[in-house]
Write a structure and sequence with these properties.
The chain has about 80 residues and is of the alpha+beta class. The protein has one domain: Alpha-Beta Plaits. Helices cover about 25% and strands about 15% of the residues. It has 2 helices and 4 strands; from the N terminus they run βββαβα. It has a two-stranded antiparallel ribbon. It has a two-stranded antiparallel sheet with strand order 2-3. It is globular, with a radius of gyration of 12 Å. The two termini are about 25 Å apart. The model has no long low-confidence stretch (mean pLDDT about 95). GO terms for molecular function: 4 iron, 4 sulfur cluster binding; metal ion binding. It comes from Beggiatoa alba B18LD. One of its GO terms (cellular component) is cytoplasm. Its cofactor is [4Fe-4S] cluster. InterPro entries: 4Fe4S_Fe-S-bd, 4Fe4S_Fe_S_CS, PSI_iron-sulfur_center, YfhL-like.
Amino acid sequence: MALLITDECINCDVCEPECPNGAISEGDEIYVINPNACTECVGHYDTPQCIDVCPVDCIITNPSFIETKDDLYLKYQQLIKQTA
């Protein structure tokens, strides 16, 4: 599943540089996660790095993008091919 940053985000800037896929960017009011690029760090780390560093716990599973770990790994492989 892709992740989602809620409106509890305080724009602290710690999540964006931690994302190995570049899925996090500054939105109009809060940071946002591109669900097409979010693999929950599958392929890179054991846990989502943005969740690990978020000081206010405002990153949740995006209910609009339900994916298995296998789906996330396939997405990771596709992203790697695009950057190669």
